[in-house]
From TrEMBL:
The name this protein goes by in its record: WD repeat-containing protein 79
Family: Belongs to the TCAB1 family.
WD repeats: 259-294, 318-340
Annotated GO MF terms: RNA binding
Organism lineage: Eukaryota, Metazoa, Ecdysozoa, Arthropoda, Hexapoda
Entry superkingdom: Eukaryota
InterPro entries named in the record: SWT21/TCAB1_mRNA_Telomere, WD40/YVTN_repeat-like_dom_sf, WD40_repeat_CS, WD40_repeat_dom_sf, WD40_rpt
Protein backbone atom coordinates (compact mmCIF):
# COMPACT_ATOMS: atom_id res chain seq x y z
CA UNK A 1 0.00 0.00 0.00
CA UNK A 2 1.54 3.26 -1.08
CA UNK A 3 1.38 6.45 0.93
CA UNK A 4 -1.30 8.10 -1.20
CA UNK A 5 -3.56 5.05 -1.38
CA UNK A 6 -4.26 4.99 2.35
CA UNK A 7 -5.11 8.68 2.50
CA UNK A 8 -8.48 10.24 1.96
CA UNK A 9 -7.34 12.74 -0.68
CA UNK A 10 -5.29 12.03 -3.76
CA UNK A 11 -2.68 14.70 -3.02
CA UNK A 12 0.24 13.44 -0.95
CA UNK A 13 1.80 15.10 2.06
CA UNK A 14 0.49 16.80 5.19
CA UNK A 15 -2.23 18.66 3.25
CA UNK A 16 -4.32 15.48 3.22
CA UNK A 17 -5.38 15.80 6.83
CA UNK A 18 -6.11 19.51 6.41
CA UNK A 19 -8.37 19.09 3.38
CA UNK A 20 -10.47 16.13 4.54
CA UNK A 21 -11.73 16.54 8.12
CA UNK A 22 -13.52 13.21 8.35
CA UNK A 23 -12.12 9.81 9.30
CA UNK A 24 -8.62 10.74 10.45
CA UNK A 25 -9.65 13.87 12.30
CA UNK A 26 -12.49 12.04 13.99
CA UNK A 27 -10.02 9.50 15.34
CA UNK A 28 -7.11 11.54 16.59
CA UNK A 29 -7.85 15.28 16.79
CA UNK A 30 -8.54 16.27 20.42
CA UNK A 31 -11.82 17.87 21.39
CA UNK A 32 -11.44 21.58 22.14
CA UNK A 33 -15.06 22.44 22.88
CA UNK A 34 -16.54 19.94 25.30
CA UNK A 35 -19.96 21.63 25.36
CA UNK A 36 -21.00 20.03 22.06
CA UNK A 37 -20.64 16.35 21.12
CA UNK A 38 -17.62 15.82 18.90
CA UNK A 39 -18.70 12.64 17.20
CA UNK A 40 -21.76 10.46 17.53
CA UNK A 41 -21.56 6.86 16.36
CA UNK A 42 -24.21 6.23 13.69
CA UNK A 43 -27.29 4.12 14.28
CA UNK A 44 -27.06 0.52 13.13
CA UNK A 45 -29.65 -1.88 11.68
CA UNK A 46 -32.32 0.81 11.53
CA UNK A 47 -33.57 -0.51 8.19
CA UNK A 48 -33.44 -4.13 9.46
CA UNK A 49 -31.62 -5.18 6.31
CA UNK A 50 -28.09 -5.32 4.94
CA UNK A 51 -26.80 -3.90 1.67
CA UNK A 52 -23.79 -5.49 0.02
CA UNK A 53 -21.16 -2.86 -0.79
CA UNK A 54 -18.01 -4.69 -1.86
CA UNK A 55 -16.65 -8.19 -2.06
CA UNK A 56 -13.43 -10.04 -2.72
CA UNK A 57 -13.00 -13.78 -3.14
CA UNK A 58 -10.28 -16.41 -3.31
CA UNK A 59 -10.18 -19.72 -5.16
CA UNK A 60 -7.74 -22.56 -5.57
CA UNK A 61 -5.77 -22.67 -8.79
CA UNK A 62 -6.23 -25.58 -11.15
CA UNK A 63 -2.73 -26.90 -10.50
CA UNK A 64 -3.01 -26.72 -6.70
CA UNK A 65 -3.39 -29.83 -4.58
CA UNK A 66 -6.68 -30.83 -3.04
CA UNK A 67 -5.64 -29.83 0.49
CA UNK A 68 -4.65 -26.30 -0.59
CA UNK A 69 -7.80 -24.36 0.25
CA UNK A 70 -7.58 -20.54 0.46
CA UNK A 71 -10.37 -19.90 2.93
CA UNK A 72 -10.50 -16.87 5.23
CA UNK A 73 -9.32 -17.17 8.80
CA UNK A 74 -10.16 -13.70 10.12
CA UNK A 75 -10.60 -10.05 9.20
CA UNK A 76 -10.08 -6.88 11.29
CA UNK A 77 -10.71 -3.23 10.50
CA UNK A 78 -7.83 -0.85 11.03
CA UNK A 79 -8.28 1.50 14.01
CA UNK A 80 -8.64 4.51 11.67
CA UNK A 81 -11.13 2.68 9.46
CA UNK A 82 -9.34 3.10 6.13
CA UNK A 83 -8.64 -0.57 5.36
CA UNK A 84 -9.33 -4.14 6.43
CA UNK A 85 -6.69 -6.73 7.30
CA UNK A 86 -7.48 -10.29 6.23
CA UNK A 87 -5.73 -13.59 6.81
CA UNK A 88 -6.27 -16.23 4.12
CA UNK A 89 -5.26 -19.83 4.60
CA UNK A 90 -2.36 -20.82 2.32
CA UNK A 91 -2.32 -17.29 0.89
CA UNK A 92 -0.83 -15.07 3.60
CA UNK A 93 -2.15 -11.67 4.64
CA UNK A 94 -4.13 -9.18 2.55
CA UNK A 95 -5.04 -5.52 3.05
CA UNK A 96 -8.19 -4.24 1.35
CA UNK A 97 -9.07 -0.55 1.26
CA UNK A 98 -12.48 1.02 1.79
CA UNK A 99 -13.83 2.77 -1.33
CA UNK A 100 -13.60 6.54 -0.90
CA UNK A 101 -17.29 7.15 -1.51
CA UNK A 102 -18.03 5.28 1.74
CA UNK A 103 -16.01 7.67 3.91
CA UNK A 104 -18.96 10.08 4.33
CA UNK A 105 -22.71 10.20 3.77
CA UNK A 106 -25.13 7.36 3.21
CA UNK A 107 -25.58 4.88 0.38
CA UNK A 108 -28.35 4.12 -2.05
CA UNK A 109 -29.86 0.65 -2.56
CA UNK A 110 -28.97 0.98 -6.24
CA UNK A 111 -25.26 1.38 -5.53
CA UNK A 112 -23.01 -0.79 -7.70
CA UNK A 113 -21.19 -3.56 -5.84
CA UNK A 114 -17.42 -3.05 -5.94
CA UNK A 115 -15.07 -5.96 -6.59
CA UNK A 116 -12.03 -5.24 -4.45
CA UNK A 117 -8.42 -6.15 -5.06
CA UNK A 118 -5.84 -6.48 -2.33
CA UNK A 119 -3.69 -3.37 -1.99
CA UNK A 120 -1.05 -5.26 0.02
CA UNK A 121 -0.39 -8.98 -0.15
CA UNK A 122 2.17 -10.58 2.14
CA UNK A 123 2.72 -14.16 1.02
CA UNK A 124 3.56 -15.67 4.38
CA UNK A 125 4.36 -19.35 4.46
CA UNK A 126 2.92 -21.48 7.22
CA UNK A 127 -0.19 -21.24 9.35
CA UNK A 128 -0.90 -17.79 10.81
CA UNK A 129 -1.93 -18.27 14.43
CA UNK A 130 -2.94 -14.72 15.31
CA UNK A 131 -2.74 -11.12 14.07
CA UNK A 132 -3.60 -7.62 15.28
CA UNK A 133 -3.34 -3.95 14.33
CA UNK A 134 -1.30 -1.36 16.15
CA UNK A 135 -3.97 0.37 18.32
CA UNK A 136 -2.82 3.90 17.42
CA UNK A 137 -2.76 3.25 13.69
CA UNK A 138 -3.45 6.39 11.61
CA UNK A 139 -2.65 6.53 7.90
CA UNK A 140 -1.73 10.22 8.21
CA UNK A 141 1.22 9.04 10.33
CA UNK A 142 3.08 6.32 8.37
CA UNK A 143 5.08 5.21 11.42
CA UNK A 144 1.90 3.97 13.11
CA UNK A 145 0.67 1.92 10.13
CA UNK A 146 1.68 -1.60 11.02
CA UNK A 147 0.34 -4.92 12.22
CA UNK A 148 1.62 -8.01 14.02
CA UNK A 149 1.43 -11.65 13.02
CA UNK A 150 2.52 -14.83 14.70
CA UNK A 151 2.73 -17.98 12.64
CA UNK A 152 4.07 -21.48 12.53
CA UNK A 153 7.86 -21.80 13.06
CA UNK A 154 8.36 -18.02 13.11
CA UNK A 155 8.69 -15.25 15.71
CA UNK A 156 6.26 -12.40 16.25
CA UNK A 157 6.67 -10.14 13.21
CA UNK A 158 5.73 -6.51 12.61
CA UNK A 159 4.73 -5.55 9.05
CA UNK A 160 4.48 -2.19 7.34
CA UNK A 161 0.99 -1.37 6.06
CA UNK A 162 2.23 0.93 3.26
CA UNK A 163 4.51 -1.43 1.35
CA UNK A 164 4.08 -4.81 3.09
CA UNK A 165 7.72 -4.96 4.18
CA UNK A 166 8.90 -6.64 7.37
CA UNK A 167 9.83 -3.99 9.92
CA UNK A 168 11.16 -6.12 12.77
CA UNK A 169 10.59 -9.29 14.77
CA UNK A 170 10.25 -10.22 18.43
CA UNK A 171 11.71 -13.59 19.35
CA UNK A 172 10.82 -15.70 22.35
CA UNK A 173 13.32 -18.36 23.44
CA UNK A 174 12.75 -21.25 25.83
CA UNK A 175 15.04 -22.68 28.51
CA UNK A 176 17.22 -24.53 25.97
CA UNK A 177 17.58 -21.43 23.79
CA UNK A 178 15.16 -22.58 21.10
CA UNK A 179 12.97 -20.04 19.37
CA UNK A 180 9.26 -20.69 20.00
CA UNK A 181 6.35 -19.46 17.88
CA UNK A 182 3.70 -17.55 19.82
CA UNK A 183 0.16 -18.92 19.77
CA UNK A 184 -1.46 -15.49 20.27
CA UNK A 185 -0.36 -11.88 20.22
CA UNK A 186 -1.76 -8.47 21.08
CA UNK A 187 -0.73 -4.92 21.93
CA UNK A 188 -1.40 -3.24 25.23
CA UNK A 189 -4.02 -0.52 24.99
CA UNK A 190 -1.41 2.24 24.95
CA UNK A 191 0.59 0.45 22.22
CA UNK A 192 3.90 0.51 24.09
CA UNK A 193 4.21 -3.24 24.74
CA UNK A 194 3.48 -6.49 22.94
CA UNK A 195 2.01 -9.46 24.80
CA UNK A 196 2.73 -12.85 23.23
CA UNK A 197 1.17 -16.05 24.51
CA UNK A 198 2.98 -19.39 24.41
CA UNK A 199 2.27 -22.90 25.67
CA UNK A 200 3.35 -22.31 29.26
CA UNK A 201 4.41 -18.68 29.44
CA UNK A 202 3.50 -15.08 28.62
CA UNK A 203 6.25 -12.89 27.21
CA UNK A 204 6.12 -9.10 27.12
CA UNK A 205 8.18 -7.17 24.58
CA UNK A 206 8.80 -3.43 24.37
CA UNK A 207 7.67 -2.18 20.97
CA UNK A 208 10.76 -0.01 20.53
CA UNK A 209 13.15 -2.87 21.39
CA UNK A 210 12.85 -5.70 18.82
CA UNK A 211 14.84 -8.88 19.27
CA UNK A 212 14.92 -11.28 22.18
CA UNK A 213 14.60 -8.92 25.14
CA UNK A 214 11.41 -9.74 27.01
CA UNK A 215 9.82 -10.16 30.43
CA UNK A 216 8.38 -13.57 31.23
CA UNK A 217 5.41 -14.75 33.26
CA UNK A 218 4.70 -18.47 33.66
CA UNK A 219 1.22 -19.87 33.14
CA UNK A 220 -0.39 -23.25 33.68
CA UNK A 221 -2.07 -23.48 30.29
CA UNK A 222 -1.51 -22.37 26.67
CA UNK A 223 -2.63 -18.85 25.75
CA UNK A 224 -5.00 -19.26 22.81
CA UNK A 225 -6.38 -15.70 22.67
CA UNK A 226 -6.23 -12.31 24.40
CA UNK A 227 -8.40 -9.31 25.18
CA UNK A 228 -7.11 -6.12 26.78
CA UNK A 229 -8.78 -3.13 28.39
CA UNK A 230 -6.81 -0.50 30.28
CA UNK A 231 -4.68 -2.49 32.75
CA UNK A 232 -6.74 -5.70 32.43
CA UNK A 233 -5.71 -8.73 30.39
CA UNK A 234 -8.07 -11.63 29.72
CA UNK A 235 -6.35 -14.80 28.51
CA UNK A 236 -8.31 -17.67 27.00
CA UNK A 237 -6.90 -21.17 26.94
CA UNK A 238 -7.46 -24.47 25.20
CA UNK A 239 -8.30 -26.04 28.57
CA UNK A 240 -11.65 -24.15 28.46
CA UNK A 241 -10.68 -21.57 31.12
CA UNK A 242 -10.34 -17.78 31.03
CA UNK A 243 -7.82 -16.06 33.30
CA UNK A 244 -7.94 -12.40 34.29
CA UNK A 245 -4.68 -10.55 34.96
CA UNK A 246 -3.88 -7.11 36.27
CA UNK A 247 -0.97 -5.58 34.35
CA UNK A 248 1.20 -3.00 36.05
CA UNK A 249 3.49 -0.41 34.53
CA UNK A 250 6.64 -2.52 34.68
CA UNK A 251 5.08 -5.37 32.68
CA UNK A 252 4.32 -7.92 35.38
CA UNK A 253 1.02 -9.75 35.81
CA UNK A 254 -1.07 -10.46 38.88
CA UNK A 255 -3.74 -13.12 38.55
CA UNK A 256 -7.21 -11.94 39.56
CA UNK A 257 -9.10 -15.17 39.01
CA UNK A 258 -10.30 -17.81 36.57
CA UNK A 259 -13.62 -18.20 34.80
CA UNK A 260 -15.08 -21.60 33.91
CA UNK A 261 -18.06 -22.31 31.69
CA UNK A 262 -17.06 -23.34 28.18
CA UNK A 263 -17.06 -26.92 26.96
CA UNK A 264 -14.28 -26.35 24.40
CA UNK A 265 -11.07 -24.42 24.04
CA UNK A 266 -11.58 -20.65 24.18
CA UNK A 267 -10.86 -19.09 20.78
CA UNK A 268 -11.95 -15.44 21.02
CA UNK A 269 -12.44 -12.80 23.72
CA UNK A 270 -13.77 -9.25 23.56
CA UNK A 271 -14.32 -6.54 26.19
CA UNK A 272 -17.32 -4.26 25.88
CA UNK A 273 -16.46 -0.56 25.38
CA UNK A 274 -17.28 0.25 29.01
CA UNK A 275 -14.74 -2.36 30.16
CA UNK A 276 -17.18 -4.00 32.58
CA UNK A 277 -18.29 -6.97 30.49
CA UNK A 278 -16.32 -9.68 28.71
CA UNK A 279 -17.69 -11.87 25.91
CA UNK A 280 -16.09 -15.23 25.16
CA UNK A 281 -16.51 -17.94 22.52
CA UNK A 282 -15.03 -21.41 22.18
CA UNK A 283 -14.57 -24.14 19.58
CA UNK A 284 -17.27 -26.79 19.18
CA UNK A 285 -19.31 -24.77 21.67
CA UNK A 286 -22.63 -23.27 20.60
CA UNK A 287 -22.57 -20.71 23.40
CA UNK A 288 -21.34 -17.15 23.75
CA UNK A 289 -20.79 -16.35 27.42
CA UNK A 290 -21.15 -12.81 28.76
CA UNK A 291 -19.20 -12.15 31.97
CA UNK A 292 -19.22 -9.32 34.49
CA UNK A 293 -15.55 -8.98 35.43
CA UNK A 294 -16.54 -7.67 38.88
CA UNK A 295 -18.40 -10.91 39.65
CA UNK A 296 -16.75 -13.47 37.42
CA UNK A 297 -17.70 -16.68 39.22
CA UNK A 298 -20.46 -17.45 36.73
CA UNK A 299 -21.56 -15.91 33.42
CA UNK A 300 -24.22 -13.21 33.30
CA UNK A 301 -25.75 -14.45 30.08
CA UNK A 302 -25.59 -17.30 27.61
CA UNK A 303 -26.21 -16.59 23.92
CA UNK A 304 -26.47 -19.24 21.23
CA UNK A 305 -24.78 -19.58 17.87
CA UNK A 306 -23.76 -22.53 15.67
CA UNK A 307 -20.13 -23.69 16.06
CA UNK A 308 -19.62 -27.31 14.97
CA UNK A 309 -15.90 -27.28 14.23
CA UNK A 310 -12.62 -26.39 15.94
CA UNK A 311 -12.29 -23.32 13.75
CA UNK A 312 -12.08 -19.91 15.40
CA UNK A 313 -15.38 -18.12 14.86
CA UNK A 314 -15.07 -14.41 15.52
CA UNK A 315 -17.63 -12.05 17.03
CA UNK A 316 -17.55 -8.31 17.65
CA UNK A 317 -19.11 -5.62 19.84
CA UNK A 318 -20.03 -2.31 18.26
CA UNK A 319 -18.04 0.76 19.43
CA UNK A 320 -21.24 2.17 20.92
CA UNK A 321 -21.60 -0.98 23.05
CA UNK A 322 -25.17 -1.52 21.87
CA UNK A 323 -24.77 -4.46 19.50
CA UNK A 324 -23.15 -7.87 19.68
CA UNK A 325 -22.64 -9.58 16.31
CA UNK A 326 -21.36 -13.09 15.65
CA UNK A 327 -20.95 -15.52 12.79
CA UNK A 328 -21.43 -19.27 12.75
CA UNK A 329 -20.58 -22.42 10.88
CA UNK A 330 -24.07 -22.33 9.34
CA UNK A 331 -23.27 -19.03 7.57
CA UNK A 332 -25.81 -17.07 9.62
CA UNK A 333 -24.91 -13.74 11.23
CA UNK A 334 -26.73 -13.08 14.51
CA UNK A 335 -27.21 -9.66 16.10
CA UNK A 336 -28.22 -8.81 19.66
CA UNK A 337 -29.48 -5.30 20.41
CA UNK A 338 -29.14 -4.36 24.07
CA UNK A 339 -32.30 -2.21 23.81
CA UNK A 340 -34.39 -5.09 22.45
CA UNK A 341 -32.77 -8.08 24.13
CA UNK A 342 -30.58 -7.13 27.06
CA UNK A 343 -27.74 -9.52 26.33
CA UNK A 344 -25.74 -8.03 29.21
CA UNK A 345 -28.18 -9.17 31.91
CA UNK A 346 -28.82 -12.64 33.29
CA UNK A 347 -31.32 -15.02 31.70
CA UNK A 348 -32.51 -18.52 32.45
CA UNK A 349 -29.24 -20.31 31.74
CA UNK A 350 -30.95 -23.71 31.76
CA UNK A 351 -32.48 -23.01 28.35
CA UNK A 352 -29.20 -22.74 26.46
CA UNK A 353 -30.76 -23.62 23.09
CA UNK A 354 -33.13 -20.66 23.08
CA UNK A 355 -32.41 -18.21 20.26
CA UNK A 356 -33.20 -14.71 21.49
CA UNK A 357 -31.20 -12.81 18.89
CA UNK A 358 -32.66 -9.55 17.57
CA UNK A 359 -31.73 -10.18 13.92
CA UNK A 360 -30.62 -13.21 11.90
CA UNK A 361 -29.03 -12.70 8.49
CA UNK A 362 -28.18 -15.77 6.35
CA UNK A 363 -25.36 -14.03 4.51
CA UNK A 364 -23.09 -16.89 3.43
CA UNK A 365 -23.53 -20.36 2.03
CA UNK A 366 -20.41 -21.52 3.84
CA UNK A 367 -19.11 -20.98 7.37
CA UNK A 368 -19.07 -17.30 8.44
CA UNK A 369 -15.93 -17.26 10.56
CA UNK A 370 -15.00 -13.55 10.51
CA UNK A 371 -16.91 -10.55 11.85
CA UNK A 372 -15.59 -7.01 12.24
CA UNK A 373 -17.53 -3.76 12.77
CA UNK A 374 -16.11 -0.57 11.32
CA UNK A 375 -14.85 1.76 14.09
CA UNK A 376 -16.52 4.88 12.63
CA UNK A 377 -18.88 4.06 9.76
CA UNK A 378 -21.93 1.72 9.74
CA UNK A 379 -20.10 -0.97 7.76
CA UNK A 380 -19.78 -4.64 8.66
CA UNK A 381 -17.03 -6.88 7.27
CA UNK A 382 -17.70 -10.62 7.11
CA UNK A 383 -15.47 -13.45 5.95
CA UNK A 384 -16.46 -16.96 4.95
CA UNK A 385 -14.81 -20.31 4.39
CA UNK A 386 -13.58 -23.43 6.13
CA UNK A 387 -11.54 -26.52 5.40
CA UNK A 388 -13.61 -29.02 3.41
CA UNK A 389 -12.69 -32.66 3.76
CA UNK A 390 -12.41 -34.65 0.56
CA UNK A 391 -14.61 -37.70 0.46
CA UNK A 392 -12.28 -40.70 -0.01
CA UNK A 393 -15.07 -42.73 -1.61
CA UNK A 394 -15.78 -40.08 -4.22
CA UNK A 395 -14.26 -40.79 -7.62
CA UNK A 396 -13.35 -37.66 -9.59
CA UNK A 397 -14.08 -39.40 -12.90
CA UNK A 398 -17.79 -39.96 -12.52
CA UNK A 399 -18.58 -37.73 -9.52
CA UNK A 400 -20.53 -40.37 -7.59
CA UNK A 401 -20.08 -42.38 -4.44
CA UNK A 402 -20.03 -46.12 -4.84
CA UNK A 403 -21.46 -48.23 -2.06
CA UNK A 404 -22.15 -51.97 -2.37
CA UNK A 405 -21.67 -51.81 -6.11
CA UNK A 406 -24.28 -49.10 -6.57
CA UNK A 407 -23.74 -45.46 -7.45
CA UNK A 408 -25.28 -42.61 -5.44
CA UNK A 409 -25.27 -38.96 -6.37
CA UNK A 410 -23.04 -36.83 -4.18
CA UNK A 411 -24.25 -34.01 -2.00
CA UNK A 412 -25.62 -31.26 -4.19
CA UNK A 413 -26.01 -27.54 -3.60
CA UNK A 414 -29.58 -27.95 -2.43
CA UNK A 415 -28.83 -29.92 0.69
CA UNK A 416 -25.14 -29.18 1.18
CA UNK A 417 -25.93 -26.50 3.74
CA UNK A 418 -28.05 -28.79 5.86
CA UNK A 419 -26.66 -29.63 9.27
CA UNK A 420 -24.95 -33.01 9.40
CA UNK A 421 -24.14 -34.14 12.92
CA UNK A 422 -21.07 -36.22 12.22
CA UNK A 423 -17.34 -36.00 12.68
CA UNK A 424 -16.70 -35.65 8.94
CA UNK A 425 -18.67 -33.46 6.59
CA UNK A 426 -18.22 -33.75 2.86
CA UNK A 427 -19.69 -30.73 1.13
CA UNK A 428 -19.36 -29.53 -2.42
CA UNK A 429 -20.30 -25.96 -1.42
CA UNK A 430 -17.41 -23.66 -0.56
CA UNK A 431 -17.37 -19.89 -0.36
CA UNK A 432 -14.14 -18.03 0.40
CA UNK A 433 -15.04 -14.36 0.35
CA UNK A 434 -14.62 -11.06 2.16
CA UNK A 435 -17.75 -8.89 1.98
CA UNK A 436 -18.50 -5.36 3.21
CA UNK A 437 -22.12 -4.71 4.22
CA UNK A 438 -23.89 -1.43 4.88
CA UNK A 439 -25.77 -1.66 8.20
CA UNK A 440 -26.88 1.97 8.62
CA UNK A 441 -29.50 4.29 7.18
CA UNK A 442 -30.10 4.19 3.44
CA UNK A 443 -31.36 6.92 1.14
Amino acid sequence: MDNCSMQIDDTPGPEICEKEPDIHQIVDVPVENTDTPFYEYPSLFTSKTLLELCNSSWSRTASAKQDVQPYLRGCKWSPDGTCCLTVVNNDGVHITEVPRDLYTGTVSPTRTIDVLDSTIHVKEAGLVYDFCWYPGMNSCIPETCCWLTTRQNAPVQMWDAFDGSLRCSYRGFNAVDEMEPALSVTFTTDGTRIIAGYKKVLRTFDVDRPGRDFAEHKTNSPASCFATDSNLLAMGSWNTTITLYNMNEIGTYKSIGKMHGHSGGVTHLKFTPDGLKLVSGARKDHRLLVWDIRYYRKPLNILTRVVKTNQRIYFDVSPCGKYLITGGTDGVVKVWNVDTVNWKDSLDVTDVDKDNSTFRFPLHRDCCNSISIHPIRPILATGSGQYHLHDPILTPEDGVKKENGQSDITINDKNANSAIDSDMKYSSVSENSLVFWWIGDMT
